[in-house]
Design goal:
Elements (H helix, E strand, L loop, with lengths): L3 H4 L9 H13 L14 H22 L9 H17 L6 H20 L8 H23 L1 H4 L17 H20 L5 H18 L2 H18 L4 H20 L1 H9 L4 H5 L4 H10 L4 H6 L7 E2 L2 E2 L3 H30 L4 H16 L11 H13 L12
Antiparallel strand pairs: 1-2
Helix pairs in contact: 2-3, 2-6, 3-5, 4-5, 4-16, 6-8, 8-9, 8-10, 8-17, 10-11, 10-17, 16-17, 16-18, 17-18
Protein name: O-antigen ligase domain-containing protein
Keywords: Membrane, Transmembrane, Transmembrane helix
């Protein structure tokens, strides 16, 4: 992991390094401010100052890079802008408090920064590499916390699952980051964009971190995303067919020989009832769906919240959107996912398309037990990377900094 930033070869079409820096700042903004106790206590106010400062820094950097505001037409970003407008409409009556307007402001700056950076969306791997490097750096901080303070990194509050002890991160967050960069690194190796050694430096530690987080959603998302991506390449790549066959053989062997261990890992010491109710998520979902709502709330929701209901996390993107942005929000999110899928299907087979399909499939599969598709989050950044990979033609803002 320590060699991560040095192992990925440079792009043939260079973008200013500041573009990757702006992307890294966007990722930093989405890391959140909750998690396990850190080695050095970080007040929540300080963390929020850092994350919001990162967002404003990303926006200003993107604006400096793109002073002429040359943007690429994007159905994904257009629909994301409509989702922002829906969020504002739902939040202006302050039913969810002043925090809703603050979240709308954050979401607006987030979307505006994506529009400014869309000038470099050209189907190249600029944002894939920036994605891998930044999330890889986050995972390095997680490993550093595990080495220096294992008790804080694997606290009892999370059942001994790996969490962030340098920066406060929950096990599901860490699992998501590890799964996404592991999948992208495998596909980059498959497409001969990186060598086996470089890929292993990313994949092996990432999978180790993923296993220590005991995150079922990320694990299943990684498997589902890779299977769909490999199938999309199967007709044109013998290497993809071999990798897919290898995954099937390994999965079959693991199911036969390690079935008991795999079951214990997935159960995480929970009872069958807890597992079937998705660790209590189903109870929150039932309460949310049975709560009375006005006609306006059915259409537009109650405004942006902290993705919780009655003090408990919703942990489902679709129900969180229903709660915050109503059926209109659900329709918009479904629309931009369908648009990305349709564009991916219409593109000829390529490594860029395979990586985009992996990211889309991961986000869709994770949406059932994780919130994030309706607000500024890593999931929207994953989909933005997919949109950048599916773009064609020369980027409209290719000028370098003076």
């Amino acid at each position: 992991m320590a060699e991560l930033t040095a192992t990925l070869p440079a792009e043939t079409k260079s973008a200013p390094k500041a573009v990757s820096a702006a992307w890294a700042l966007l990722i930093l903004n989405t890391l959140g401010s909750t998690g396990a106790q850190t080695v050095i206590p970080l007040p929540r106010a300080v963390i929020q100052l850092v994350t919001m400062g990162a967002l404003m820094g990303a926006f200003l950097l993107a604006l400096v890079l793109n002073l002429r505001v040359r943007i690429r037409p994007s159905a994904y970003l257009m629909l994301l802008s409509f989702l922002l407008l829906t969020s504002i409409v739902a939040s202006v009556d302050l039913e969810s408090g002043l925090g809703a307007l603050f979240r709308c402001f954050r979401f607006a700056v987030f979307v505006a920064t994506l529009w400014l950076l869309s000038g470099w969306w050209d189907g190249s791997f600029t944002f894939v590499r920036a994605h891998i490097r930044m999330f890889g750096a986050v995972l390095i901080s997680v490993v550093l916390g595990l080495v220096t303070a294992p008790g804080k990194a694997m606290p009892d509050i999370y059942g001994g699952r790996l969490s962030g002890a340098v920066w406060p991160l929950t096990p599901p967050q860490i699992g998501q980051y590890a799964a996404v960069i592991a999948g992208l690194a495998v596909l980059m190796w498959l497409g001969k964009r990186t060598d086996a050694k470089s890929a292993l430096i990313v994949v092996v530690p990432s999978l180790g971190v993923l296993l220590l987080t005991h995150t079922r959603t990320a694990t299943l998302g990684l498997v589902a995303g890779l299977i769909v991506a490999l199938l999309s390449q199967g007709l044109v790549s013998a290497r993809a067919r071999k990798v897919f066959a290898g995954i099937v053989l390994v999965a079959g062997f693991a199911a036969l020989v390690l079935g008991g261990l795999l079951q214990a890992w997935f159960l995480r010491g929970q009872s069958t009832d807890d597992f079937s109710s998705l660790t209590g998520r189903a109870k929150v979902w039932d309460a949310l769906l049975s709560a009375p709502r006005t006609g306006f709330e059915y259409l537009f929701g109650v405004g942006l919240t902290d993705k919780s209901y009655d003090g408990l996390p919703i942990d489902n993107s679709w129900l969180a959107i229903y709660h915050e942005q109503g059926f209109v929000g659900i329709g918009i999110v479904a629309a931009f996912l369908l648009v990305l899928v349709a564009i991916a299907v219409l593109r000829p087979p390529s490594l860029a398309r395979a990586c985009a399909i992996f990211l889309i499939a991961y986000c869709v599969s994770a949406s059932y037990t994780e919130a994030g598709l309706g607000d500024a989050s890593p999931y929207l950044l994953h989909l933005a990377v997919a949109a950048s990979l599916l773009a064609t033609g020369e980027a409209p803002a290719r000028e370098k900094l003076a």
